[in-house]
Design goal:
Helix content is 29%, strand content 9%. It is of the alpha+beta class and 206 residues long.
């Protein structure tokens, strides 16, 4: 990663005391949603309300793979200024979908909607009304509809096979030519190929 300092490494030790002093001046609350830490790679609760945890956070390595494996999820949304973890996630967890909410130096609204669209494609329920509130979007019910005729054009396979067997569906009787019927309305005959150990189908479309 291109960063200004060697975060999450021993090189951060000179700033730990100052960072701890700032962290101790903050007020913390218990998380209201399950929280999996990249410091421990496991779910945490009380640890998040201490200055010691956040001081340790900038010193310890990021255990992203352990944290992702601990989560029973198939879709992950990265909330941040860029798609850093979205790019790293697929290498840590096979088969999961990773979506970013923002990308650096790109239009924020467009990127957010792009992320929402990807979540929808991945099967995540999306509150469209909340997503487009204040944007001028509205439901349009006046569009002309199409009256589907619902006319079916099924092939009459039974009659076709009868004609085929008696030589009336094609130019000649396939059985009399030493072939087998293909038992399919689009195929006229079948013959086993001794060279490839496969089957060669023939048919007549028009």
């Amino acid at each position: 990663l291109t960063v200004s300092h060697a975060f999450h490494s021993p090189l951060m030790e000179p700033v730990l005391d100052d960072f701890r002093a700032v962290a101790e001046s903050l007020t913390y609350h218990q998380p209201r949603i399950p929280f999996v830490s990249t410091v421990t790679g496991e779910a945490v609760t009380d640890e998040l309300t201490t200055a010691a945890y956040w001081t340790e956070h900038i010193r310890k390595p990021v255990r992203l793979t352990d944290a992702l494996a601990h989560l029973p999820a198939a879709v992950f949304l990265e909330i941040g200024p860029d798609a850093v973890l979205t790019a790293l996630g697929p290498a840590s967890l096979d088969g999961a979908v990773f979506v970013s909410a923002q990308r650096r130096e790109r239009d924020e609204a467009a990127e957010l909607l792009h992320g929402v669209a990807r979540l929808h494609v991945a099967g995540v329920p999306v509150d469209r009304a909340a997503c487009f509130t204040g944007g001028g979007a509205r439901r349009i019910d006046e569009l002309p509809t199409y009256a589907f005729q619902r006319t079916r054009y099924w092939l009459d396979a039974k009659d076709y096979f009868t004609e085929l067997w008696h030589g009336e569906a094609g130019a000649a009787n396939v059985v009399g030519a030493g072939l087998e019927t293909a038992a399919h309305p689009l195929l006229g005959a079948a013959v086993w190929s001794p060279e490839s150990d496969g089957v060669v189908f023939t048919g007549r479309l028009s």
